[in-house]
Design brief:
Length: 296
């Protein structure tokens, strides 16, 4: 009898040079992130740089402890790289992940990082990562320069992903500073506001909005083969008939396909109900407590 494999797809790595080069933009987008996700916060915290950089024994041991058969690796903060260094650093990131996959082919696969701040270089890097390195798609962390993926400058990325028939995993990222200040801060304590804007609510809300932008802008009309993975635990519209009535048609005028149906048909499911640390490795949820037998 075959045993089902456990493959986890939101498994981040860190590249020291990328972290250093993107630090200024990362701090500008989410000023309180470092303190809010430090172990001293007393809340679930991000793994250390040493844990995230490990692509060998330490990571494999952690996977074995959780009965994980395979991780799909992805690198952090590449969407915040300055445009002048992004192409070279992202190429190095992808080469590093490819080497890890080659060392452990039955344990690792990878999503490509893309130099979206230098968007003209991104389609070629995606094609190289998929066709030469064997990657299974790309993971993009939210907006780049506060722009959605539906912006014209990113259209070649969408077209290339559709041509290659590989998914774009739309990963949560902090909201823009304007959105954070208006919606998530407004007098709250910095730790509370940062958690509210990120893992507590904002990551998933903003990624859901991002995905709907792709639907309403007609991305899936232009590229019906495109596979886009919505964020984990996005706020889900419960009143689709109302959305269908009030959203303009995103397909050509002669089409009767509602926007909500079009989005569902092009989306890959990436939801989970398991509680987890903010951007860390998969952990199995604790076993449910058994109710004591009724003695009456």
């Amino acid at each position: 009898m075959s045993t089902m494999k456990l493959i986890t797809i939101e498994e981040h790595t860190m590249h020291a040079a990328v972290a250093k080069a993107s630090a200024a933009r990362t701090a500008a987008v989410s000023p309180g992130f470092g303190a809010s996700y430090a172990p001293a916060s007393g809340l679930p915290y991000s793994p250390s740089a040493e844990v995230l950089e490990d692509l060998d024994e330490g990571r494999l041991a952690a996977m074995d402890a959780e009965d994980i058969d395979m991780q799909v690796l992805s690198n952090l903060t590449t969407q915040y790289l300055p445009a002048d260094v992004a192409p070279e650093l992202v190429r190095d990131v992808n080469d590093r992940l490819a080497a890890a996959c080659k060392r452990h082919p039955d344990r690792f696969a990878a999503f490509a990082s893309l130099p979206t701040t230098a968007a003209e270089h991104a389609p070629g890097e995606l094609r190289r990562a998929v066709e030469e390195l064997g990657f299974v798609g790309t993971l993009i962390h939210g907006r780049t320069d506060d722009e959605f993926l539906s912006a014209e400058r990113f259209d070649p990325i969408l077209r290339t992903a559709a041509e290659l028939r590989v998914p774009i995993y739309l990963h949560p990222a902090p909201p823009t500073r304007v959105t954070a200040a208006d919606n998530y801060e407004a007098g709250l304590d910095e730790v509370v506001a940062t958690r509210f804007a990120t893992a507590g609510w904002g990551w998933h809300n903003e990624s859901g909005i991002h995905f709907v932008h792709l639907v309403l802008s007609g991305v899936f009309d232009r590229y019906p083969e495109l596979q886009e993975s919505p964020p984990p635990r996005p706020p889900r519209p419960r009143r689709r008939p109302r959305s269908n009535a009030h959203w303009p048609r995103c397909r050509p005028p002669h089409s009767r396909t509602p926007c909500t149906s079009w989005g569902r048909s092009s989306a890959l499911s990436a939801t989970t109900d398991q509680p987890s640390p903010p951007s860390g490795p998969f952990r199995r949820p604790p076993a449910p407590k058994r109710r004591p037998p009724n003695s009456s």
